[in-house]
Amino acid sequence: MASPPTFNVALPSNLLTTDASPDWLNKADNAWQLVAATMVGMQSVPGLVILYGSIVKKKWAVNSAFMALYAFAAVLVCWVGWGYRMSFGDKLLPFWGTPGVALDQKYLLGPAFAGLFPTATMVFFQFVFAAITLILIAGALLGRMNFHAWMLFVPLWLTFSYTIGAYSVWSLNGFLTKKGIIDYSGGYVIHLSSGVAGFTAAYWVGPRATKDRERFPPNNILLMLAGAGMLWMGWTGFNGGDPYVASIDASLAVLNTHVCAATSLLVWLCLDIIFFGKPSVIGAVQGMITGLVCITPAAGVVQGWAAIIMGVLSGSIPWYTMMVVHKKVTFLKQVDDTMAVFHTHAVAGTLGGILSGLFAEPKLNRLFYGDNPIYIGLFYGLQMGKTKEGFHQIGIQLVGILFIITLNVIVTSLICLLVRLVVPLRLSEEDMQAGDDAIHGEEAYALWGDGEKFENSKHNSVYDVEEYPPKRGGEVEMA
Fold first, then answer.
1. What average pLDDT does range 200-220 have in this prediction?
2. Dihedral (C-alpha) 324, 325, 329, 334: value to the nearest 10 degrees?
3. Which of 104, 109, 169 is nearest to 133 (CA)?
4. What pLDDT digit, counting tens, does each position of 440-473 carry?
C-alpha cells in the first residue's frame, strides 16, 4: 500500500474520449486491481460479518454482525464524499490532504496516482481498506456499545484519524512516505491503527455486563471458521493488490502472506497444547490473524525465509502478551477488549513494522519502490556496508509506530468524548441483558428460547471468556 513510483504515461488531451480502453490503460492490471479490491471487501462483507456474528453469544449475534455491515456502508459514502481525497489528494498539511468529492467522471476516469488503471478503481480499492479498519475497531467494542454512538463514531474516526494515517504513510506527499517508511499493505495504517483505536475506544465505552465478561462463548464455532476462512483467503487481494500491478512482486507478496499465516497458526496452536493441553480452534484463528497482520507491512519486500521467521514470532509474541502479560498488567485487565484487537492487531502490527525494518531486501524493495536507495532493511544494511541506511530504516519504522499510536490515542479519545455528549457510548444495563432484541428488535436464531441453555457444556473452549486468556490450566508462568 505504500506508494510505488508513478508511471510516466503520455495522456490524451481529453481523458473522456469515446474509447473505453485508452492507450494508458493496462487491462490486466485494472482487472487484477478490481478483483483484489473485491476480495478485500469480502473479508468484511460477509467475512467479518459472519465472524463477529458467530464468535459472540447468541444474544449479541445480530448487533455484532450489523456493526460491521453498517461500518462498511457508512465508510463508502464518506470515502467518496471527502475521505479519499483527504487520504490521497492534494496536500493540505504534511500529514493531511485537502477534502474533496471523488464522484466526478472527469476525475474518476482519468489515470490513478499510481498504476495503469483509472482513479475509479483506486478509489474503490482504497475504500475497502478504510472500511475493514473501522470494522476491526468494532471487534474491541462488541457486546455493549450503543449502536447510535457507533453510527456517529464511524464517520468521525474515518475523517479525523484514518485519513491522517493514510496520507502520512501512503500518499506520495505524506511526510512519512518521504522519509522512506515501509508499510507495504497496512501494518501501520490499518492494523496498528485499529488495534490502538479499538483498545482506546474500549476504555471509554466501558466493559460488557459482568455476566458477559465472565462467560462469552461463541454461538457457532463452525460458522466462525467460515468467516475466518474468508478473512484468510481474502488476504490474497489485501497484500497481492498493493503493487498496483499484476507483477512478480504481487505473486511473492501473496505467497509470503499465506506462509506467514500458516506458520503463525501452527505456532499458536502448539503453545496452546503445551500450556493448556487442548488444541483450541479459536486460538488457531487468533494465530492465523496475527500472522496475517504481521506480514502485511512486509509482504512483498521480504524473502520467504523471513516470512517463516515472522510467522514464528507472530504466533508466539502476541500469544505471550495475550496469555501472560495481559493477566499481569492491571490496566490491560481493566479494559474490556472483546476480540483482543490490542494483541492481534496492535501488537502484531507493531511487530510487523519492526521486522520490516530488519528484513526488507534491497532487490525486492526496488521491485516495489523503484531505484530508491533509502529502502533497505537493517540486516542487509549491515551486511552490505550501508549501516547508516539500515539504521535509518529501522528508525523511521519506529517513528511511524510512535506517530500512529499517538494519533489514535488522542483522536479516538476526543471522538469518544464528543460522541458521548450527544448519545451514551454504552448501552444501559437492561439493554445489555437483553441484547439483540432490545437493540434491534430482532434475534439471530429462534431455536431454543433464550439460547443460553448450552453454555455449561463440557465442550466449552478455553478461549470463551472475556478477552480470551483461558481459566483452565492455571496461570501461564514463563521466564
1. 94
2. -80
3. 169
4. 988 888 765 444 444 454 444 445 544 444 544 4
Query: What does the pLDDT read at residue 304?
Result: 96
| Mean pLDDT of all residues belonging to the chain | 91
CA angle 36, 30, 365 (to 5 degrees): 70
Between CA 138 and CA 149, with CA 143 as vertex, the angle to 5 degrees is 60
Q: Is 144 helix (H, G, I), strand (E, B) or coil?
A: coil
Give the mean pLDDT of 167-181.
95
Three-state DSSP class for residue 459? coil
The residue among 216, 211, 176, 207 whose CA lies nearest residue 192 is 176
E strand or H helix that includes residue 27: helix 27-42
Residues 6+ apart with CB under 8 A from 458: none
Q: Please state, in angstroms and rounded to a whole number, the distance separating the CA atoms of residues 340 and 268.
A: 15
Question: Percentage of the chain surpassing pLDDT 70?
Answer: 89
User: What is the C-alpha separation between 81 and 336, in angstroms, rounded?
Assistant: 34
Q: How many CB atoms lie within 10 A of CB 77?
A: 11
- Supply the pLDDT for residue 374: 83
CB 93 within 8 A of CB 69: no
Cβ contacts of residue 219 below 8 Å, gap of 6+? 54, 56, 57, 58, 61, 444, 445, 451
Alpha-carbon distance 264 to 352, whole Å? 13
Answer yes or no: are the C-beta atoms of 439 and 149 closer than 8 Å. Answer: no
β-bridge mates for residue 93, sequence order: 96
CA distance 456 to 17: 67
- Residue corresponding to grid cell 488503471: 117
State the Cα–Cα distance between residues 175 and 181, nearest whole angstrom: 9
Report whether 317 contacts 352 (CB < 8 A).
no
Distance CA 478, CA 78 (A): 47
Is pLDDT above 90 for 191? Answer: yes
Sequence-separated (6 or more) residues with CB below 8 Å from residue 233: 39
Lowest mean pLDDT among 16-20, 112-116, 265-269: 16-20
Residue 100 has pLDDT above 60, yes or no: yes
β-bridge pairing 91-93 and 96-97:
antiparallel
Collapse the DSSP code of 448 into the 3-class scheme (helix H, G, I; strand E, B; otherwise coil) and give the result.
coil
Give the pLDDT confidence score for residue 174 in this predicted structure.
Answer: 96
H-state helical runs in 79-158: 84-88, 105-108, 119-138, 147-157
Task: Tally the C-alpha atoms within 13 A of residue 18's C-alpha that lie toward its C-beta.
Answer: 0
- For residue range 382-395, list pLDDT tens digits in order: 999 999 999 999 99
Where do the domains of the chain lie, and which CATH numbers do they carry?
33-440 (1.10.3430.10)
- DSSP label of 451: S
Task: Give just the sign of the alpha carbon dihedral 129, 146, 56, 437.
Answer: negative
